[in-house]
Hints:
With 79 residues, the protein is an all-alpha fold. It has helices at residues 2-42, 59-71. The protein has a domain at 1-46. Helix content is 68%, strand content 0%. The radius of gyration is 25 Å and the shape is flat. It comes from Asbolus verrucosus (Desert ironclad beetle).
Amino acid sequence: MEQKLMAFGHTQCKIAWKSFVQNFQKQFQETVSRCIKVFRETGSVTRKKGSGRPSKRTDETINAVEEIMENESGPQFVA
């Protein structure tokens, strides 16, 4: 019984590893291709300013969090 489980586990492990490697290779190729494309278009691989998800951090939210932390009992954290 134990040998059957070990053989099954080994086979499944090999299949999972092969799938992982193939997926990793595909993602790596896509990332490199995207970097090359961006470099050809802009001359740089850095993100464009303002691209991505906008920040939710405003003076209002910072002040609200600071007020909550001041009113909480327990250890105080200083930034």
